[in-house]
Amino acid sequence: MKNMLIHGGKKLSGTVVIGGAKNSTVALIPAAILSRTPVILESVPVIQDVTNLMAILDEMNVSSTFADCVLRIDPSHIQNVPLPSGKIKSLRASYYFMGALLGRFGRAVVGLPGGDDIGPRPIDQHIKGFEALGATVTNDHGAISITAPKEGLHGARIFFDISSVGATINVILAAVTAHGHTVIENAAKEPEIIDLATYLNNMGAVIRGAGTDTIRIEGVAQLAAHNAHTIIPDRIEAGTYLAMAAAVGDGVNVKNIISEHLDAFLAKLEEMGVVMDVGEDSIFVYPSGDLKMVQVKTLPYPGFATDLQQPITPLMLKAHGEGIIIDTLYPKRVRHIPELVRMGADITIENDVIIVHHADHLEGCEVAAEEIRAGACLMIAGLMAEGDTTITKAENILRGYDRVIMKLRNLGADVELIDEAAPAEQALRAEN
């Protein structure tokens, strides 16, 4: 277990460079096993999820090396083994191995996914897509077994009941090597879908319409990577640092940004009164004056991202009036609220609606990061607070934020990561 210790109350200034998108990376790594040749990914974020996915690749006899944000994956000697292990349980995005293994081998056995506890995220749309392609799906003691017919997967028209990023990605991974033509309707439109399609098309896939609600795929026999792929910048990391800069910044430049990916978030910051200079690939955030309270409603892309409702919450505490946050995607994503209240926030939950009031003062204390974005929220609140804030379960923050301690320190934050010794180790230290 790791704790993040923040000595709050210090203004941040300088430049922070955003890393590659976590939500692209966790799909691109499983997708690499579709290639018959070695794969090179550039601008890979240094996060725990990458380490976890590399460990899963290793179980399949897929070698990988990671240095200087470049990940090299060699699937030449891949073995199709069941993946019901603990590593799968700890990482929700590991379910992309379902589509990737099905597309590569026609069979996949993958443990039911874990990840952050932010409410129900069923995989029924994934299963619906696999079955439409001709696969048989069964649940065998907590592991999903997916088998293509003897003649292989076939193209199909698939209409998702809800616009699901995970299901869209998984069906793309299975369909790129299926026989014939596949049409995915009500597909997710997130930038990470476009990134995946670009990556696969450069391997020889034929995918059209990524970024729209209708994606068309012509199946090909096999894929092979020939060029390195550079991952798009992480819009959620960017939004987190923009909110942080507005909350505790004394002039912060956030670089390596695709601002179009943040249109809904930037509009909300502007509505609050945050002053920014939006450049070609960077945004400079000026020190904040008086801020106005806003209403936030999360929606599928291009709407306000659910992953940014928590990072914007501490900034809203600085605004005057009453603010409302409604998460239409994950209404139970509120585990950060009791922690903020402990720090002195005037914030309540009524019927899954978060109601925010101005808080003149936050006081550092011990809080828990129950999931990635809750951790980001508490990190910003800790920087705003007087005194020391200890964030337990900080490994959740490390799962999603690239070299976060280094980046915060470069901005002038007084922050450190502390390993919490296991009880047996603590006892041993005491004896010595």
UniProtKB/TrEMBL annotation:
The active site is at residue 116. UDP-N-acetyl-alpha-D-glucosamine binds at residues 92, 121-125, 307, 329. It is found in: Cytoplasm. Its EC number is 2.5.1.7. Gene3D superfamilies: Enolpyruvate transferase domain. It is an enzyme of class 2 (transferase). Residues 7-407 form the Enolpyruvate transferase domain. It comes from the Bacteria. One of its GO terms (molecular function) is UDP-N-acetylglucosamine 1-carboxyvinyltransferase activity. It catalyses: phosphoenolpyruvate + UDP-N-acetyl-alpha-D-glucosamine = UDP-N-acetyl-3-O-(1-carboxyvinyl)-alpha-D-glucosamine + phosphate. Signal peptide: none annotated. Pathway: Cell wall biogenesis; peptidoglycan biosynthesis. Phosphoenolpyruvate binds at residues 22-23. Pfam families: EPSP_synthase. Keywords: Cell cycle, Cell division, Cell shape, Cell wall biogenesis/degradation, Cytoplasm, Peptidoglycan synthesis, Transferase. Belongs to the EPSP synthase family. MurA subfamily. NCBIfam families: murA (TIGR01072), PRK09369.1 (NF006873), PRK12830.1 (NF009470). HAMAP family: MurA. Cell wall formation. Adds enolpyruvyl to UDP-N-acetylglucosamine. PANTHER family: UDP-N-ACETYLGLUCOSAMINE 1-CARBOXYVINYLTRANSFERASE, UDP-N-ACETYLGLUCOSAMINE 1-CARBOXYVINYLTRANSFERASE 2. This is UDP-N-acetylglucosamine 1-carboxyvinyltransferase. It comes from Lacticaseibacillus hegangensis.
